[in-house]
Amino acid sequence: xxxxxxxxxxxxxxxxxxxxxxxxxxxxxxxxxxxxxxxxxxxxxxxxxxxxxxxxxxxxxxxxxxxxxxxxxxxxxxxxxxxxxxxxxxxxxxxxxxxxxxxxxxxxxxxxxxxxxxxxxxxxxxxxxxxxxxxxxxxxxxxxxxxxxxxxxxxxxxxxxxxxxxxxxxxxxxxxxxxxxxxxxxxxxxxxxxxxxxxxxxxxxxxxxxxxxxxxxxxxxxxxxxxxxx
Length: 230
Hints:
Helix Hairpins; Pectate Lyase C-like; 36% helix; 2% strand
């Protein structure tokens, strides 16, 4: 088996899968094998999870690097490089610098999304891990199956948001507004919910709790029934 075939197999994909499929497979497997989802006292499974994550990360990086190089060579035809010599009278050199500047700016602008308005936005299945969304307006947004590991949502408005099966491992949700939010199936393990308002949030089906709250800090949070967690 070639290294390439091995990387596809690690991500449980068929050879030739698209970059989107690689990214989605990576998110799915990280969600399954993240050490925070495994009991700390089970050292065997903790070690297995660490090994799995290492292999998953390596496979994604190798496949992303390969596909990025392929796209770069495929979308850089020679004719565009010949234009400067054919149009020297128009001094095109300054214009060539603009594309590289504009392509570099969006990641910098998008790294900090604090205070942004995403009310009613469809962000389902997105990877927002590590993003700064503090004090952002996400009221009524669809965040189902969204990967938000270590996301900063401090003071964010998530009222009536759909967080069905969202991955919020180690998320910062201090003073967040989660009133009437759907948290069924969400994983809030290790998240900081101090002072958050969960009034009317959906976390149960009958008497069964359907939110993962292992290691979650709920000090001072307003619970769905209106009581304050002590």
